[in-house]
């Protein structure tokens, strides 16, 4: 029987070979699972999001139960999600019933004048003041995460599971379209495009600095989660998309690559129109993680010889499908994607997914 360290090394090698477009012993499986694992464990979501020790145990037990190859998280960061979108977050057990999934409460918390404040005072100062005065950031929970995260990460590694993400970096569009609301942000990029662009440049530079600091003490770092919640090309005309989405994303990506880590694009919605842009990046330095909306076969056609593809067992399949359907779909993906593929859920595994379907997804990679 292999030790946890032997399994850790085996899984880490498997993941790194897939990212490098080499041939691993088999396709790795690294879904994003949080609320789903809490439900399987019989843990109330209110306890999962409020108690970090409980969420760490849920993540570790889930990785063991479903035989994942790596972990996308080691504790619940639901309480911090509002910080990414400059919005309040509604949590189970606080604003919501105990087993209702957390929700971003998007409203107009930023004003047009806030663009000038960021330009005059910098993003870090604005960010701190904004969190303290405008949205319900739990600073005690934030400090608890900072203090305890290294031990939670170690707990996961000690059980034999590499941490897939060494850090996170958000595109400035997530902050601005959340804080201004998506509708107001769309007006801003037409009425005051130069000001918005200047602010996005400032945020990009600040986030790159923060990302580099956050990964300094990472053990066996693999990738950086590049958050792209509001950047879908279908939301913008091509010129606006290139100016306000692609240009910051390109700068962020090269900054991640310069650290020696992989840029993992967490791609929500349909990016098919702009796949050719991603050919800019050096071979083997990025992962295109799709949520099932962008046709994975188009991704393979355009980018399969340049970067690893991660996905794409969709939420609807995992919830409404049968184990045989999931197994057959996953097996076909593994066959068709070939080298440079990580099997995963399309975005996160939904809380009400059928456990037998998740097991069938993993079984396809195990060849069982």
Automatic annotation (TrEMBL):
GO biological process terms on file: porphyrin-containing compound biosynthetic process
Domain Uroporphyrinogen decarboxylase (URO-D): 178-365
Keywords recorded for this protein, A-Z: Lyase
EC number in record: 4.1.1.37
Pfam families: URO-D
Cited InterPro entries: Methanogen_methyltrans, UROD/MetE-like_sf, Uroporphyrinogen_deCOase
Group of enzyme by EC: lyase
GO molecular function: uroporphyrinogen decarboxylase activity
Name listed for the protein in its UniProt record: Predicted Uroporphyrinogen-III decarboxylase-like protein
